[in-house]
Amino acid sequence: MADDQDAAARRRVAAWAGAERKLADGPVSGTLAQRLARLADEAPESYDLGEWTDMYGDGVVAELERRTAGLLGTEAAAFFPTGTMAQQVALRCWAERTGSRTVAMHPLAHPEQWERDALTQLTGLRVVHTTGEARNPTEDEVREVAEPFGTLALELPLREAGFVLPDWDELTATVEAARERDAVVHFDGARLWECTAFYGRGLPEIAALADSVYVSFYKSLGGLSGAALAGSAALVEEATAWRHRYGGQLFQQWPAALSALVGLDRELPRLPQYVAHAKVVAVALREAFGGGAAPWSRIRPEEPHTHQFLVWLPYDAEVLTEASVRAAEETGTGLFRTWSDAGPPGVAVTEVTVGAPGLSWTAEDVAEAVREFMARVR
Question: Which parts of the sequence belong to the Aromatic amino acid beta-eliminating lyase/threonine aldolase domain (predicted)?
Fold first, then answer.
Protein backbone atom coordinates (compact mmCIF):
# COMPACT_ATOMS: atom_id res chain seq x y z
CA MET A 1 0.00 0.00 0.00
CA ALA A 2 2.79 2.44 0.91
CA ASP A 3 4.57 1.67 -2.37
CA ASP A 4 1.36 2.33 -4.30
CA GLN A 5 0.88 5.66 -2.51
CA ASP A 6 4.49 6.67 -3.18
CA ALA A 7 4.12 5.79 -6.85
CA ALA A 8 0.91 7.81 -7.10
CA ALA A 9 2.55 10.79 -5.42
CA ARG A 10 5.55 10.62 -7.77
CA ARG A 11 3.20 10.46 -10.74
CA ARG A 12 1.34 13.56 -9.56
CA VAL A 13 4.54 15.51 -9.02
CA ALA A 14 5.88 14.47 -12.44
CA ALA A 15 2.63 15.43 -14.17
CA TRP A 16 2.45 18.87 -12.57
CA ALA A 17 6.16 19.63 -12.96
CA GLY A 18 6.04 18.51 -16.58
CA ALA A 19 2.96 20.50 -17.55
CA GLU A 20 3.83 23.17 -20.10
CA ARG A 21 1.10 25.48 -18.83
CA LYS A 22 0.06 25.92 -15.21
CA LEU A 23 -1.35 28.60 -12.96
CA ALA A 24 1.58 28.46 -10.56
CA ASP A 25 4.74 26.53 -9.91
CA GLY A 26 4.23 23.78 -7.37
CA PRO A 27 6.07 23.37 -4.07
CA VAL A 28 8.11 20.60 -5.71
CA SER A 29 9.04 22.18 -9.01
CA GLY A 30 12.08 20.32 -10.26
CA THR A 31 14.82 17.79 -9.70
CA LEU A 32 17.68 18.38 -7.27
CA ALA A 33 19.92 19.38 -10.16
CA GLN A 34 17.35 21.81 -11.53
CA ARG A 35 16.75 23.46 -8.16
CA LEU A 36 20.48 23.81 -7.46
CA ALA A 37 21.05 25.30 -10.90
CA ARG A 38 18.16 27.71 -10.44
CA LEU A 39 19.46 28.86 -7.04
CA ALA A 40 22.96 29.34 -8.42
CA ASP A 41 21.54 31.39 -11.28
CA GLU A 42 19.21 33.60 -9.23
CA ALA A 43 21.03 34.05 -5.92
CA PRO A 44 23.88 36.36 -7.08
CA GLU A 45 21.34 39.16 -7.56
CA SER A 46 20.31 38.89 -3.92
CA TYR A 47 23.53 38.05 -2.02
CA ASP A 48 27.27 37.98 -2.60
CA LEU A 49 28.15 34.34 -3.22
CA GLY A 50 31.78 35.15 -2.53
CA GLU A 51 30.91 35.33 1.16
CA TRP A 52 31.51 32.35 3.45
CA THR A 53 28.65 30.01 4.30
CA ASP A 54 26.76 30.70 7.50
CA MET A 55 27.57 29.07 10.80
CA TYR A 56 24.89 28.89 13.51
CA GLY A 57 22.92 31.81 12.12
CA ASP A 58 25.48 34.36 11.01
CA GLY A 59 26.25 35.53 7.47
CA VAL A 60 23.44 35.05 4.99
CA VAL A 61 21.00 34.01 7.73
CA ALA A 62 21.65 37.19 9.70
CA GLU A 63 21.18 39.20 6.49
CA LEU A 64 17.82 37.53 5.90
CA GLU A 65 16.76 38.39 9.45
CA ARG A 66 17.79 42.01 8.94
CA ARG A 67 15.92 42.25 5.63
CA THR A 68 12.79 40.67 7.10
CA ALA A 69 12.69 43.02 10.08
CA GLY A 70 13.14 45.96 7.72
CA LEU A 71 10.32 44.87 5.44
CA LEU A 72 7.93 44.32 8.35
CA GLY A 73 9.00 47.43 10.23
CA THR A 74 9.91 45.55 13.42
CA GLU A 75 12.95 45.94 15.65
CA ALA A 76 14.23 42.44 14.95
CA ALA A 77 13.46 39.07 13.38
CA ALA A 78 14.74 35.53 13.93
CA PHE A 79 15.00 32.83 11.27
CA PHE A 80 13.42 29.46 12.12
CA PRO A 81 13.65 26.20 10.16
CA THR A 82 9.86 25.79 10.35
CA GLY A 83 6.83 27.95 10.99
CA THR A 84 5.53 25.35 13.42
CA MET A 85 8.55 25.93 15.64
CA ALA A 86 8.40 29.70 15.24
CA GLN A 87 4.78 29.92 16.36
CA GLN A 88 5.20 27.53 19.27
CA VAL A 89 8.11 29.62 20.50
CA ALA A 90 6.22 32.88 20.05
CA LEU A 91 3.16 31.70 21.94
CA ARG A 92 5.31 30.18 24.65
CA CYS A 93 7.17 33.44 25.11
CA TRP A 94 3.93 35.38 25.36
CA ALA A 95 2.54 32.93 27.91
CA GLU A 96 5.55 33.59 30.14
CA ARG A 97 5.24 37.35 29.70
CA THR A 98 1.47 37.63 30.20
CA GLY A 99 1.21 35.02 32.94
CA SER A 100 -1.56 33.26 31.00
CA ARG A 101 -1.12 29.92 29.27
CA THR A 102 -4.40 30.30 27.39
CA VAL A 103 -4.34 31.23 23.70
CA ALA A 104 -7.45 32.32 21.80
CA MET A 105 -7.51 31.25 18.15
CA HIS A 106 -9.75 29.97 15.40
CA PRO A 107 -10.44 26.21 15.31
CA LEU A 108 -9.31 26.25 11.65
CA ALA A 109 -5.97 27.87 12.52
CA HIS A 110 -2.79 26.03 11.54
CA PRO A 111 -1.76 24.98 15.11
CA GLU A 112 -5.19 23.41 15.59
CA GLN A 113 -5.31 21.67 12.21
CA TRP A 114 -1.79 20.63 11.29
CA GLU A 115 0.54 20.47 14.29
CA ARG A 116 -0.56 17.34 16.18
CA ASP A 117 -1.57 19.29 19.30
CA ALA A 118 2.00 20.59 19.67
CA LEU A 119 0.90 23.62 21.68
CA THR A 120 -0.53 21.44 24.42
CA GLN A 121 1.87 18.52 24.13
CA LEU A 122 5.13 20.51 24.02
CA THR A 123 4.39 23.84 25.64
CA GLY A 124 1.57 23.11 28.06
CA LEU A 125 -0.58 25.85 26.53
CA ARG A 126 -4.32 25.51 26.13
CA VAL A 127 -6.53 26.87 23.38
CA VAL A 128 -9.92 28.53 23.49
CA HIS A 129 -11.77 29.13 20.24
CA THR A 130 -12.87 32.56 19.13
CA THR A 131 -15.59 31.59 16.62
CA GLY A 132 -16.87 28.62 14.66
CA GLU A 133 -17.61 30.71 11.57
CA ALA A 134 -15.43 30.26 8.47
CA ARG A 135 -13.73 33.64 8.89
CA ASN A 136 -11.58 35.44 11.40
CA PRO A 137 -13.32 36.50 14.62
CA THR A 138 -15.12 39.80 15.03
CA GLU A 139 -14.47 42.26 17.84
CA ASP A 140 -17.65 41.14 19.60
CA GLU A 141 -16.65 37.49 19.44
CA VAL A 142 -13.27 38.34 20.97
CA ARG A 143 -14.96 40.27 23.76
CA GLU A 144 -17.36 37.37 24.38
CA VAL A 145 -14.78 34.57 24.73
CA ALA A 146 -15.97 32.98 27.94
CA GLU A 147 -12.65 32.89 29.81
CA PRO A 148 -9.50 34.99 30.12
CA PHE A 149 -6.69 34.51 27.60
CA GLY A 150 -3.23 36.01 27.37
CA THR A 151 -2.73 35.92 23.60
CA LEU A 152 -5.03 36.30 20.60
CA ALA A 153 -3.60 34.55 17.53
CA LEU A 154 -5.00 35.63 14.17
CA GLU A 155 -4.18 33.76 10.94
CA LEU A 156 -3.98 36.23 8.05
CA PRO A 157 -5.28 35.04 5.66
CA LEU A 158 -7.26 32.15 7.18
CA ARG A 159 -6.29 29.35 4.81
CA GLU A 160 -8.80 26.64 5.67
CA ALA A 161 -11.71 29.07 5.25
CA GLY A 162 -10.59 30.05 1.74
CA PHE A 163 -7.60 32.34 2.38
CA VAL A 164 -10.00 34.97 3.68
CA LEU A 165 -9.19 38.25 5.40
CA PRO A 166 -11.24 40.61 7.56
CA ASP A 167 -11.44 44.13 6.20
CA TRP A 168 -9.16 46.74 7.75
CA ASP A 169 -11.74 48.21 10.12
CA GLU A 170 -12.73 44.73 11.29
CA LEU A 171 -9.11 43.77 11.84
CA THR A 172 -8.21 46.87 13.82
CA ALA A 173 -11.37 46.55 15.92
CA THR A 174 -10.62 42.89 16.69
CA VAL A 175 -7.08 43.78 17.75
CA GLU A 176 -8.42 46.55 19.96
CA ALA A 177 -10.90 44.15 21.55
CA ALA A 178 -8.01 41.87 22.50
CA ARG A 179 -6.13 44.80 24.01
CA GLU A 180 -9.20 45.68 26.08
CA ARG A 181 -8.92 42.18 27.55
CA ASP A 182 -5.25 42.77 28.42
CA ALA A 183 -4.12 40.27 25.78
CA VAL A 184 -1.27 40.52 23.32
CA VAL A 185 -1.81 39.85 19.62
CA HIS A 186 0.18 37.44 17.45
CA PHE A 187 -0.25 37.25 13.67
CA ASP A 188 0.11 33.88 11.98
CA GLY A 189 1.23 35.64 8.82
CA ALA A 190 2.60 32.70 6.87
CA ARG A 191 1.01 34.35 3.83
CA LEU A 192 1.02 37.92 5.13
CA TRP A 193 3.18 38.94 2.18
CA GLU A 194 0.21 38.96 -0.23
CA CYS A 195 -2.21 40.81 2.09
CA THR A 196 -1.00 44.28 1.12
CA ALA A 197 -3.12 44.39 -2.04
CA PHE A 198 -6.32 43.59 -0.13
CA TYR A 199 -5.66 46.20 2.55
CA GLY A 200 -4.05 48.83 0.34
CA ARG A 201 -1.44 49.23 3.05
CA GLY A 202 2.22 48.37 3.39
CA LEU A 203 3.61 45.50 5.42
CA PRO A 204 4.86 47.70 8.29
CA GLU A 205 1.40 49.19 8.86
CA ILE A 206 -0.20 45.75 8.90
CA ALA A 207 2.47 44.19 11.12
CA ALA A 208 2.34 47.13 13.54
CA LEU A 209 -1.11 45.99 14.68
CA ALA A 210 0.42 42.90 16.31
CA ASP A 211 2.96 42.30 19.06
CA SER A 212 4.61 39.53 17.03
CA VAL A 213 4.37 38.27 13.47
CA TYR A 214 5.37 34.98 11.88
CA VAL A 215 6.03 34.85 8.14
CA SER A 216 6.92 31.97 5.83
CA PHE A 217 9.56 32.06 3.12
CA TYR A 218 8.22 29.25 0.95
CA LYS A 219 4.42 29.53 0.94
CA SER A 220 4.27 32.73 -1.14
CA LEU A 221 7.89 33.53 -1.93
CA GLY A 222 9.01 30.23 -3.44
CA GLY A 223 11.83 29.61 -0.99
CA LEU A 224 13.06 26.15 -0.12
CA SER A 225 11.89 26.28 3.50
CA GLY A 226 12.06 28.37 6.62
CA ALA A 227 10.21 31.10 8.47
CA ALA A 228 10.82 34.15 10.62
CA LEU A 229 9.43 35.48 13.87
CA ALA A 230 9.46 39.27 14.03
CA GLY A 231 8.77 41.69 16.85
CA SER A 232 10.60 43.71 19.49
CA ALA A 233 14.30 43.13 20.04
CA ALA A 234 13.59 41.78 23.53
CA LEU A 235 11.03 39.26 22.30
CA VAL A 236 13.27 38.07 19.47
CA GLU A 237 16.20 37.65 21.86
CA GLU A 238 14.04 35.47 24.11
CA ALA A 239 12.74 33.55 21.10
CA THR A 240 16.25 32.72 19.90
CA ALA A 241 16.99 31.09 23.24
CA TRP A 242 13.91 28.88 22.83
CA ARG A 243 14.84 28.23 19.20
CA HIS A 244 18.09 26.71 20.47
CA ARG A 245 16.25 24.61 23.05
CA TYR A 246 13.84 23.35 20.38
CA GLY A 247 16.71 22.23 18.14
CA GLY A 248 16.32 25.03 15.64
CA GLN A 249 19.85 26.44 15.89
CA LEU A 250 21.11 24.59 12.81
CA PHE A 251 24.78 24.56 11.84
CA GLN A 252 24.22 25.75 8.26
CA GLN A 253 21.06 27.02 6.58
CA TRP A 254 22.43 28.89 3.58
CA PRO A 255 20.32 27.16 0.86
CA ALA A 256 17.06 28.08 2.61
CA ALA A 257 18.28 31.58 3.48
CA LEU A 258 19.53 32.26 -0.04
CA SER A 259 16.29 31.10 -1.62
CA ALA A 260 14.33 33.27 0.83
CA LEU A 261 16.35 36.35 -0.14
CA VAL A 262 15.67 35.55 -3.81
CA GLY A 263 11.96 35.30 -2.99
CA LEU A 264 11.98 38.68 -1.26
CA ASP A 265 13.63 40.26 -4.30
CA ARG A 266 11.79 38.45 -7.09
CA GLU A 267 8.40 37.25 -5.83
CA LEU A 268 7.41 39.80 -3.20
CA PRO A 269 7.10 42.69 -5.70
CA ARG A 270 5.00 40.50 -8.03
CA LEU A 271 2.44 39.35 -5.47
CA PRO A 272 -0.01 42.22 -6.13
CA GLN A 273 -0.10 41.13 -9.80
CA TYR A 274 -0.86 37.57 -8.76
CA VAL A 275 -3.66 38.75 -6.47
CA ALA A 276 -5.20 40.85 -9.24
CA HIS A 277 -5.06 38.02 -11.78
CA ALA A 278 -6.49 35.52 -9.28
CA LYS A 279 -9.73 37.52 -9.51
CA VAL A 280 -9.75 37.03 -13.29
CA VAL A 281 -9.15 33.30 -12.94
CA ALA A 282 -11.86 32.94 -10.27
CA VAL A 283 -14.46 34.67 -12.46
CA ALA A 284 -13.49 32.49 -15.43
CA LEU A 285 -13.77 29.31 -13.36
CA ARG A 286 -17.16 30.32 -11.99
CA GLU A 287 -18.48 31.08 -15.47
CA ALA A 288 -17.06 27.86 -16.93
CA PHE A 289 -18.55 25.66 -14.23
CA GLY A 290 -21.80 27.62 -14.07
CA GLY A 291 -22.17 27.44 -17.83
CA GLY A 292 -22.80 23.72 -17.65
CA ALA A 293 -19.35 22.19 -17.10
CA ALA A 294 -20.33 20.95 -13.63
CA PRO A 295 -23.67 20.18 -11.94
CA TRP A 296 -22.68 22.37 -8.99
CA SER A 297 -19.61 24.27 -7.91
CA ARG A 298 -18.49 26.86 -5.43
CA ILE A 299 -15.55 29.22 -5.31
CA ARG A 300 -14.60 30.72 -1.97
CA PRO A 301 -14.31 33.59 -1.64
CA GLU A 302 -16.16 34.62 -4.80
CA GLU A 303 -13.61 37.40 -5.26
CA PRO A 304 -10.26 36.15 -3.90
CA HIS A 305 -8.68 38.17 -1.11
CA THR A 306 -5.19 36.94 -2.01
CA HIS A 307 -3.74 34.98 -4.94
CA GLN A 308 -5.22 31.76 -3.52
CA PHE A 309 -8.78 30.51 -3.16
CA LEU A 310 -10.82 27.29 -2.85
CA VAL A 311 -12.88 25.41 -5.43
CA TRP A 312 -15.55 22.87 -4.44
CA LEU A 313 -17.06 20.25 -6.78
CA PRO A 314 -19.60 17.43 -6.14
CA TYR A 315 -17.31 14.46 -6.84
CA ASP A 316 -15.03 12.21 -4.82
CA ALA A 317 -11.58 13.64 -4.27
CA GLU A 318 -9.91 10.58 -5.78
CA VAL A 319 -11.86 11.04 -9.02
CA LEU A 320 -10.97 14.71 -9.28
CA THR A 321 -7.30 14.20 -8.45
CA GLU A 322 -7.02 11.51 -11.13
CA ALA A 323 -8.71 13.79 -13.67
CA SER A 324 -6.30 16.59 -12.73
CA VAL A 325 -3.28 14.34 -13.25
CA ARG A 326 -4.56 12.93 -16.54
CA ALA A 327 -5.32 16.40 -17.91
CA ALA A 328 -1.77 17.52 -17.09
CA GLU A 329 -0.27 14.38 -18.61
CA GLU A 330 -2.40 14.34 -21.77
CA THR A 331 -2.83 18.04 -22.57
CA GLY A 332 0.23 19.61 -20.97
CA THR A 333 -2.00 21.97 -19.00
CA GLY A 334 -2.15 21.77 -15.21
CA LEU A 335 -5.30 23.42 -13.88
CA PHE A 336 -5.84 21.74 -10.50
CA ARG A 337 -3.64 19.69 -8.19
CA THR A 338 -4.69 17.51 -5.26
CA TRP A 339 -8.32 17.37 -4.11
CA SER A 340 -9.46 16.38 -0.63
CA ASP A 341 -12.70 15.15 0.93
CA ALA A 342 -12.97 18.01 3.41
CA GLY A 343 -16.71 18.56 3.29
CA PRO A 344 -19.97 16.63 3.00
CA PRO A 345 -19.81 13.16 1.42
CA GLY A 346 -19.36 13.37 -2.33
CA VAL A 347 -17.99 16.93 -2.26
CA ALA A 348 -14.28 17.65 -2.67
CA VAL A 349 -12.17 20.80 -2.41
CA THR A 350 -8.91 22.01 -3.88
CA GLU A 351 -6.72 25.07 -3.47
CA VAL A 352 -5.98 27.24 -6.50
CA THR A 353 -2.88 29.42 -6.55
CA VAL A 354 -2.15 31.99 -9.24
CA GLY A 355 1.54 32.76 -9.68
CA ALA A 356 3.86 33.99 -12.41
CA PRO A 357 2.98 31.19 -14.89
CA GLY A 358 -0.72 32.03 -14.54
CA LEU A 359 -0.42 35.69 -15.50
CA SER A 360 -0.64 34.79 -19.19
CA TRP A 361 -3.89 32.83 -18.80
CA THR A 362 -6.95 34.45 -20.36
CA ALA A 363 -10.54 33.68 -19.42
CA GLU A 364 -10.79 31.47 -22.52
CA ASP A 365 -7.64 29.59 -21.47
CA VAL A 366 -9.32 28.85 -18.13
CA ALA A 367 -12.54 27.76 -19.85
CA GLU A 368 -10.66 25.40 -22.17
CA ALA A 369 -8.73 23.90 -19.27
CA VAL A 370 -12.02 23.34 -17.41
CA ARG A 371 -13.47 21.56 -20.45
CA GLU A 372 -10.47 19.26 -20.73
CA PHE A 373 -10.53 18.58 -16.99
CA MET A 374 -14.26 17.82 -16.81
CA ALA A 375 -14.04 15.52 -19.83
CA ARG A 376 -11.74 13.35 -17.74
CA VAL A 377 -13.94 13.58 -14.67
CA ARG A 378 -16.81 12.08 -16.62
Answer: 57-287
